[in-house]
Amino acid sequence: MKISISEPKHIEPIISMFDTFLGKEGAFLKRPFCYFLGCPIRSPLSFSKNNLNVLIKTTQLGLPTDTSVAAQAGAPGALAGAMVQTFAETLAGLCAVNLVSSGMPMCFGMWPFITDLRTANFTGGNGEEALIIAAATQLCNHYGLITSGPSGMTDSKTMDAQAGYEKGITTTAVALAGNNIISCYPGMVGSLLAQSFEGLIIDNDMMGNVLRVVRGIEVTDETLSFEVIKETVYGQGHFLSHPQTHQLMRSEFVYPEAADRRLPEEWEKDAFKPLS
User: Fold this and answer.
1) All residues at 6 or more sequence positions from 32 whose CB lies less than 8 Å from its CB, including other chains
2) Which domains does the chain have, with CATH numbers?
3) 125 CB-side CA count, 13 A
4) How many CB atoms lie within 10 A of CB 270?
5) Strands 41-42, 46-47: pairing kind
6) Nearest C-alpha neighbor of 182 from the set 253, 134, 113
7) Is the pLDDT of residue 37 over 90?
8) Which are the contacts of 203, defined by CB distance < 8 A and separation ≥ 6?
């Protein structure tokens, strides 16, 4: 879990609240169960005083941090240029942490976003965002840095088809690129300005499927199923009653909670069922 903090004065009260929850003063710092984040950068290439002080204060307390540097591609116009700028800015945050406490862990939060130049608005759900976050992840992985990245954002104002494809492509891209800590914003709509409670349930299904894609296909003598196929061909002629089918049902496949997989006639019958 992570918490975004914009003012250094908020750090101590939050830690005190966590200590109260844990039932002992100093318990949170002894074993923190979340980390703090804040963007210490004001793009292009300058520090933001308050957020930099948050980074310094949390580092002094021995707390892992995440920089979440969110420069906006589109201005600069080239995606490669935005990558260069964001990497340099995030590296500045890493340098600041190490100046305070050499070797202190920090999540290299390289979060380049996209600007829609027609409106000058931030846009988080698009192919360019999926591409640049995946590329940022690959760049950080090349240097052996611990990564975080955003995904699952949508510019739609409701959980509609636009929200579905925007959330799906960005989350899948950053996950397949190998990001360590993905902020997938479940249920968030309207460019992160609103929360859909229905969206929390829908996005839970989406993220389950993305995790399944990332896990890939396990290839072993058992999963190649040579003997299973042979037994079925010369036996019952179908796999439904074979023990392997039941054994792997829950581990090989993800069954969504919200997605509707009924046959059209079943869906139609329920859709027009009279209200009781």
Assistant:
1) 63, 64
2) 37-215 (3.20.20.480), 226-271 (no CATH)
3) 23
4) 10
5) antiparallel
6) 134
7) no
8) 152, 167, 184, 185, 186, 187
